[in-house]
Amino acid sequence: MTESTHLTKLVDSNIANFVTEREPILVSIAPELATFADFSRDLLSGGKRFRAQFCYWGWRSVSDADFAGDRAASDRAEVEFSALVELCTGLEFFHSAALVHDDIIDKSDMRRGRPSAHRRFENLHRDRGYTGDPGAFGRSSAILMGDLLLAWSEELVGVALQQLEADGASGGARASIATRLEFNRMRTEVTLGQYLDILEENAWPVLAENDLLGRAERVIEYKSAKYSVEAPLVLGARLHGAKPAQVAALRAFGLPLGIAFQLRDDLLGVFGDAERTGKPSGDDLREGKRTMLVALTRQTLSAGSKRIFDELLGDPDLGPEQISMLQATISDSGAADRVEELITQHAEDALHALAASPLGDSAKLQLAALATTITQRDA
Questions:
Q1: Which of 15, 92, 93, 255 has its CA 20 to 30 A from that of 182?
Q2: Rounded Cα–Cα distance for residues 202 and 179 (Å)
Q3: What CATH number is given to the structural domain containing 202?
């Protein structure tokens, strides 16, 4: 069993145990609240655990040399690893909360092959014959589910930092503070990145055409790249008390890789196989995502073609023929090929930064392999 597989199994087990332990608290308030545990358990059972893996290898990249020594070092490693698993689990809860809220904002019907949280609550309303608007009930309930997952992520991170501080090892308190500040920074950036995404979907008609590509890249950086790759790497490193040069190296690797990761997501959101991605093909086209892929496409279109493209993009009722037409427009424009080139460029930039970094050699090999996995995936 590889280290990444072992970590994933530990995080999966930790997630299942946490929800099981919290379910009696929910049911003690009201039996109906078992739904929150059921829906959370289902959502959290999916996913690739990329954030947990980056957090783990960020930790390993700065801790290997320190933990190769005596028994005391081994004991300290055990304490840190226990805290790390809690931190990785907290990241997965935070990610799930973000998905719930993102699906509400985007009006997405599916997530990981299942109805999204707000659709599940909407269906529950209909199935049980409640009064009122099922859609409004679904959205309101899912907002609260996302908030609950956020609270649980905070609880798990708190446990991780308490374990770190309780060990009493030199630097434990400083590492705890640094980890907390990094987690707070990540939450702020991804929340505001989500707003920037909403802003672009609404403000683009009144913005200068030349600004749209740069603004789309800004959304990628703050909504996804930092929180998907850079922040987890740095969180793992901070947990061990990483040196400034090590943190800088992880950021130099993590940010371009995170951008490549999201660019791959953007291609999958337009061209992906629904059976592999767990979301309908062309879903980003129905949602009207103003991605770099879209910005690059529009740069090549005539005024008339651009007008038709803009009228179709964001229509939730797009049929298969219209989706195919938009996909063909994007492909024929050369934008999809350009995004593939950007993925390669950003991935190479990340790998060059990694090769030159003052990080552990074993972790560097694993991070390079993980970089290939997340940029060349089909789901």
A1: 15
A2: 35
A3: 1.10.600.10
Residue-wise pLDDT for 257-286, tens only, equals 999 999 999 999 999 988 888 888 899 999
**Residue 155: which of 311, 15, 272, 352 has the closest Cα?**
15
Q: Write the pLDDT tens digit of every residue in 118-142.
A: 999 999 999 999 999 999 999 999 9
* Residue 302 pLDDT level (bands cut at 50, 70, 90): very high
Concatenate the DSSP letters of all residues of 229-296 into one string: IIHHHHHHHHHHT--HHHHHHHHHHHHHHHHHHHHHHHHHHHH--HHHHSS-TTHHHHHT---HHHHH
Residue 266 CA to residue 304 CA, distance in Å, equals 25
User: Pick from 379, 302, 373, 288: which is nearest to 4 by CA?
Assistant: 373
- Separation between Cα atoms, residue 234 and residue 182, nearest integer Å: 8
Number of H helices, E strands in the chain: 17, 2
Q: Is 280 exposed, middle or buried (0-12, 13-18, 19+ CB in 10 A)?
A: middle
Three-state DSSP state, 112 = coil
Q: Residue 75 has what pLDDT?
A: 83
Q: What is the DSSP string of 19-60?
A: HHHHHHHHHHH-GGGHHHHHHHHHHHT-S--HHHHHHHHHHH
Is there a contact between 359 and 66 (Cβ–Cβ < 8 Å)?
no
The average pLDDT across 159-178 equals 87
For residues 169 and 82, is the Cβ–Cβ distance under 8 A?
no
Cα 257–Cα 258–Cα 259 angle in degrees, nearest 5: 90
- pLDDT tens digits, 212-241: 999 999 999 999 999 999 999 999 999 999
d(CA 281, CA 268): 8
Could you give the CA distance from residue 96 to residue 100 in angstroms, rounded to a whole number? 6
Distances, alpha carbon 34 to alpha carbons 20, 23, 81, 317, in Å: 10, 6, 32, 34
**Domain containing 282: what range?**
3-375
Output the CA torsion sign for 167, 171, 172, 173.
positive
